[in-house]
Amino acid sequence: MNSDWKPKTILIATDFSKGSRQALAIAGRLALHYGVGLKMVHVFTMVATHRYAVPVGWMIEDLRNRARKQLQQVSRRLKNAGCSVETRLVDTVSPPAAEILGSIAGCDDPLIVLGTHSHDRVERFLVGSTAEEVLRNTDWPVITVGPDVQSSTGLGPLNRLMLATDLTERSFVPIHLLSGLWEKDAELTVVHVSSPDDEILGANWMEPLRSRIAKQLGKGTVRFEHYVADNCAQKISEIAKDQDIDLLLIGLHPGKQFSAHVSPKTGFQIIMSAPCPVLSIRS
Fold first, then answer.
1. pTM summary value
2. Can you list the positions of beta strands (E) in the chain?
3. Where in the chain is the domain with CATH 3.40.50.620?
């Protein structure tokens, strides 16, 4: 990706849950902001098999038709708001994540938007989830709308941005997305949370970041804040809530190993606890 990357497509995977409805509002905002088309995908996985004692094909067909109607209804609302929308219902027995990743592979320079309706964050990390599987297997930017994100119905701008960094090169990766997101009245807060056991930061800890961000944004309102806390993910989520952040940006470690499911990394903890959508990208 180049230094001022912008998507050519916004891909939204929806299951019509509460989290997905919130994700659709964010996807609509971004499609209008970037002036690109919105591709909406629903993965329908219900298929009648021989284990049923009574015929259920007609019930499944009814559910399939309902899904088509929901896609049409959502598409109509987004088009009325000014979005260009393409819909696709994927009928499959494959895991939803595999079909979503296949849809991503068919897009040019996509920005992916996903919702999660998980109510038990720890359980979802232990058993995995569709959103988590997609995050672990794509190098494109993904916006995840977690279970603590409040309902968003408007298509207004995302003006209050926050970049969470641990000062590693991996955490600097989202910087190149800033110029595409930036609007006239936007504000950026750069946050670093260190552990009480970490070395004390010098007064100029933000200087390498300041110069890189300045190259992306030129002039703009940027604040740098440092905190010390035992739980980094919890603190970042609290800051995002206190500052009423519209969009949080983080870099993710590229690990895919199963151990990451039973010991969630900070990035995934942030995604599942944030009060706002989280834009993440693997380094």
1. 0.86
2. 9-13, 37-44, 85-91, 110-115, 142-145, 160-164, 187-194, 221-228, 247-252, 278-282
3. 6-150, 157-283
